[in-house]
Write a structure and sequence with these properties.
SMI1/KNR4-like, two-stranded antiparallel sheet, 6 strands
């Protein structure tokens, strides 16, 4: 619990309830092909701080402030909750095109899809 409180302090906002609950049970989830379907809490913090502060990202991509990244596909695409406006939906950020696309209605749906499909590109 202290690690999650510290993560929220560093990020400057609270984690979605579903994600917080999962992280209280397990510090991340590794999928079938050793892909971090849900990152450990420290990686969630580090990746989100990086994406909001790296000047080269600001030149290459649309702002990331509305997203909370929490996992990836192992090839550069990342999965995120929408922070603004707050909603349970999960979107994928495709790094090559900077597109942001809906992939799941909530964390449970996301986990069911990404863990059941067995491939890293389940959302394509």
């Amino acid at each position: 619990m202290a690690a999650l409180d510290e993560a929220e302090r560093r990020l400057g906002f609270g984690l979605p309830g579903e994600l917080r609950g999962l992280l209280l049970e397990s510090d991340g989830i590794v999928g079938h092909t050793a892909v971090d379907s849900v990152w450990a809490v420290e990686q969630i913090v580090e990746q989100n701080l990086l994406f909001r502060s790296d000047p080269s990202f600001a030149q290459l991509y649309m702002p990331f402030d509305a997203l909370l990244f929490f996992g990836d596909n192992g090839g550069g695409d990342q999965f995120a909750f929408v922070r603004t406006p707050r909603r349970p939906d999960i979107f994928v950020w495709e790094h090559e095109s900077d597109s942001r696309r809906w992939v799941a209605r909530d964390l449970k749906d996301y986990l069911g899809r990404c863990l059941a499909q067995g491939g890293d590109d389940w959302y394509q």
